[in-house]
Design brief:
Elements lengths: L2 H18 L21 E5 L4 E6 L5 E4 L5 E6 L4 E6 L5 E9 L4 E4 L2 E5 L3 E9 L2 E9 L6 E7 L7 H4 L2 H7 L3 E5 L15 H19 L3 E9 L2 H11 L4 E5 L6 H15 L4 H19 L6 H11 L12 H6 L3 H11 L10 H5 L4 E7 L8 H12 L4 E6 L8 E4 L5 E5 L4 H9 L12 E3 L12
Parallel strand pairs: 11-12, 11-13, 13-14, 14-15, 15-16
Antiparallel strand pairs: 1-2, 1-8, 2-3, 3-4, 4-5, 5-6, 6-7, 7-8, 9-10, 10-12, 16-19, 17-18
Length: 458
Amino acid sequence: MACSTQLAVLRALAFVALYGLASLNVHASSEAQAASLPCEVGSYLMADGTSLDIGPGSPGQLRWRRPDGRTGALAPQGGNQWTSALGWTGRPDGHQVIIHCSRGEIRFDEVAGQRQPLVQTDTRFQSGDVILAGRLTLPPGQARVPIVVLIHGAEHSSALQRYSLQREFASAGIGVFAYDKRGTGASGGRYTQNYLTLAIDAIHATREARRLAGARAGRMGYQAGSQGGWVAPLAARIEPVDFVIVSFGLAVSPLDEDREAIEFDMERAGFGPEVKAKAMEFADAAARIVESGFTEGYEQLEAVKNKYRNEPWFGSVRGNITGYLLNTPTETIRRDAPRLLDGVPADYDPMPVLAGLDVQQLWILGGQDRDAPSGETLRRLTGLRSAGRPITTAVFPEADHGMYEFEKSPDGERVSTRQPEGYFYLMRDFIKGKLLDSEYGSAEISADRSGSRRGQRR
C-alpha cells in the first residue's frame, strides 16, 4: 500500500476511533477480578537506600529485579527462605532471601527491607465492544506524577500478573497503568495482533488511567516493547500524548523484520553477501505464504529447502516467520498459523505514522537483537531525527531481544543473564522529562537535533 494511501486510511479509521468510540468508556470502571499474586510480590525499599522488586517467576518460583538490571530466579527452601540463581541460567549466584509476608519485610543477603505502600486501583474499562482489565499503580502520597501506560508485545500472558515495570516505575515515583491485552488474562474479547485495534485499546487505557489518577496525573505517555513498537506510535498519532518509549521495537514491516533477522543470522554465522542473497530465497518463499493467507507458497518453500539443505549455512537460517515455517509441518502451519498471526499486517509500513509524529520519542534498541535486528530501524530513525522529528535513540550493544544481556551455553544457545545497566534509569529519566545524563551504562545515545536529550512536553 502506498504511504499516502495508508496514512489516509489510518486517518479515517482514527476519526472513527476518536469520535465513534469516545463515549464508550464513560461508565466503564469496575474492579478487575484478576488471579491473586503470591503474597511475597511487591516493591521493597532496602535499608541501604536501594529498591528491590519481587515478582512472579517460573511455576513455584519468584524473580527478584534491581533497577540496575540485575535479576535472579528464587526457589523456595522452606519456611520464608529462598535461594537465588543468576538470571535465567539456573546457576546459583549465592544470594539468600527471606520474606515475611505478614510483616511486609524482606532480607536480601544481609540487607533488610520493607514493602513500599504503593497505591493500586484495579479497574475494568471498555474499548469498542470489549471489556479490558487494568490496574493503576501510583507512588504513595498525593503529589502529581507522570503516568506511563504499558503496551504489550505479542505475548499471550497477563500483563497484570507478569509486568514488573508496574511496580518498578511506581517505586521510582512514576504512575503506571497496566492492562491485559484483549483475549489475555482477565480481559475479554478475542486475541488479536491488529495494530489499529490495539492502538485504540491503548487510547482507552490512557483515558482510563487519566480518569483514575485525577489530580495526580501529570505528563502521560507510552512504554511499549517489541510488537508494541508498531502500536504505540499509531496510538500517539491518533490521540497525542506527551512521550513514547519504544523498547526493542522496529520502524520496518514484519516481513522486513524477517528478512533482516535472516541477514543477521548469516552475519553472526560468518557468511558473506553471496550466502545472504541465497538465504533471502527463504524470506521470499515465507512472504508468499504469509501474503496468501497461508494458502499458497508451500511448494516454493520446499523447493528452496531442497536446493540448499546440504549447504553449510542452511542450519543457521533462523529468522522469525521463516524460522517457524521451516521448523513446522505444513499441515500444522495451515491449521495453526492463521490463529497465531491473527491480525498481523505483515506488510505494514510504520514510516508514514512516524514521519508525522510530533511527540517526544525514545527508541531503545539491542545491538545483538536476533528477533528484531536494529540496523535498518536505526538508520530510518536517524533520518527522521535529521528531518526534525523529536527522536532520541539508545543502542545497548550487547543486548538481545527483550533488552537482555546473555551468555552462551555449550550448545551455542543464548541464555539471558540480566538487563543492561542503565536501561531502567534511562526510561525513568525520560518519563520524568529530565535532562538525560551523558551515560547510561553502555548505551550509545543520539538525541534529537535540538540537543536537549530531554523527554520534555512540547
